[in-house]
Amino acid sequence: MKNARDPVIVGLADAPIEDGKFVTKASVLGHAALVAKAAVEEAGLTLDDVDGLLTAGMWGVPGPGQLATVTLGEYLGIMPTYVDGTNIGGSAFEAHVAHAAMALREGYCEVALIVYSSDQKSLRSRNLGGRPSVLSMQHETPYGMPTPVGGYAMAAQRHMHEYGSTSENLAEIAVATRKWAQLNPAATRRDPLTIDDVLSSTMISEPLHLLDCCLVTDGAGAIVMTTAERAKDLKTKPIAVKGYGEAHTHWAVAEMPDLARLLPAQKAGETAMKMAGVTHSDIDVVEVYDSFTITVLLTLEALGFCKIGEGGDFVSGQRTAPGGAFPMNTNGGGLSALHPGMYGMFLLIEASRQLRGDCGDRQVTGAETALVHGTGGTLSSGATVILQKD
Amino acid sequence: MSIEKPLPVIDHDSAPYWEAAREGRLDIPLCGDCGKHHFYPRAICPHCHSDNLKFDTVSGRGEVHTFTIARRPAGPAFADDVPYVVALIELEEGPRMMSRVQTDDPEAVKIGAKVEVTFVKATDEVTFPYFKMI
Ligand SMILES: [Zn+2]
């Protein structure tokens, strides 16, 4: 049943990067503003139409980034009347879509703008290892676990122990994702990659190799949402937000309830699919967070695409590569396209472009329903969004 | 010149734990209502939300629940330690805690390996509970 205030995505934009760095010269907020403007203009709107502003990032902390929506609203020269600065890590933007959808349905805003920007590569500022040793982190930081990779390595180690998954299984994911990147001119890493390449790359934090880890790049992206009714007058084909869910369990790695199972993804996925009224067989394209190869394996199991423990078999034989039975991370993912620190924005942009049919060589034929799942922190948070061609 | 390693910023929740470690004991909170231990120390029990808690000296024995061998350090302060084993230790009493497994042979560390606490003094104020395989 359709309703005039059903939430839809009507604008998308991302910033060009080259060798992982922004092409345009602008500050981190400048890039946020440029993609925001491009996304509203693509829809046939202007920034003055925006009354809902949602953002999350790592810039300007301590300082103006502590009040991120306030600072961004000021930079854009707008006065939003609905804001959400939810920051649950890389999955924040999936949660933002959910929160904007609720605000739109409620009539609390008309045009919601979700924005992300990071210049971590240009600034060489990525330093997630320096989690100050206060509160819960006083019991983790002093022991020198490499962050964030160490927590994912511990999860991988446990998954291998409980279910017999292997480094080869994880490498399948990196290789399949690279094949998608080779079809995406905007992807950062497009050179051929083999399973042996992954297995022989430098060991970072056992059992994860360098090529099990995502890229470190700049990146900025924006999404504009409005109601189905308002979208009728706009320039783009609206993409319907049919379902959403979110959950989080821990920040300290020792507090993760089950190292081999991704409970937030299980919870968020169930909620989102139930709301959308879809089952696994309805999903044509899947975009899931790939900070590390193990993130993907745990996510596919938790979302129920295969049984817990069977993720290794599920991704074997390049099933997630172009032409495979399970099209996934079709832009080349965080592993090969870009990863500016909080990657979830780009999962949403790619899924929406697939549903619009705008993906050129990497277009998944007949893509009508997409599942997007973001993961944040150290397997801490999960948020799922189900999108559908309207 | 080596870069100093991060030290815990001790607070009211954690002070008795760190004080015990300085004295060579592993003391963690025990709930007077549900009877479960927890770690890290909190003002309420994360299992049943009771505030009827006291610190209890535990066995210091447990097993490696999972681990990683850091081949790259977590920043320059840890560069001299590479390779080193960071592990989640599941204590006999139930809770898990992050620590190090002290060993000359990182490859020998396995999930399920039995371990026992060993105290390593860092400064006059801070002693860390590390673990050794037994
Ligand atoms: Zn209790």
From TrEMBL, chain A:
| NCBIfam families per record | PRK06158.1
Q: Kindly provide the name given to this protein in its UniProt entry.
A: Thiolase
Q: Supply the Pfam families for this chain.
A: Thiolase_C_1
GO MF terms listed in the record are:
acetyl-CoA C-acyltransferase activity
Where does the Thiolase C-terminal domain start and stop, copy by copy? 245-388
InterPro entries attached to this UniProt entry: Thiolase, Thiolase-like, Thiolase_C_2
For this protein, the record's SUPFAM superfamilies field holds: Thiolase-like (SSF53901)
Give the source species.
Litorivita pollutaquae
From TrEMBL, chain B:
Q: Which InterPro entries match?
A: ChsH2_C, ChsH2_Znr, NA-bd_OB-fold, Thioester_dehydratase-like
SUPFAM superfamilies, A to Z: Nucleic acid-binding proteins (SSF50249)
* ChsH2 rubredoxin-like zinc ribbon domain ranges (all copies): 18-53
- The chain positions of domain ChsH2 C-terminal OB-fold read 58-120
Q: Which Pfam families match?
A: OB_ChsH2_C, zf-ChsH2
Protein name (record): Zn-ribbon domain-containing OB-fold protein
Which lineage ranks, top first, belong to the organism behind this chain? Bacteria, Pseudomonadati, Pseudomonadota, Alphaproteobacteria, Rhodobacterales
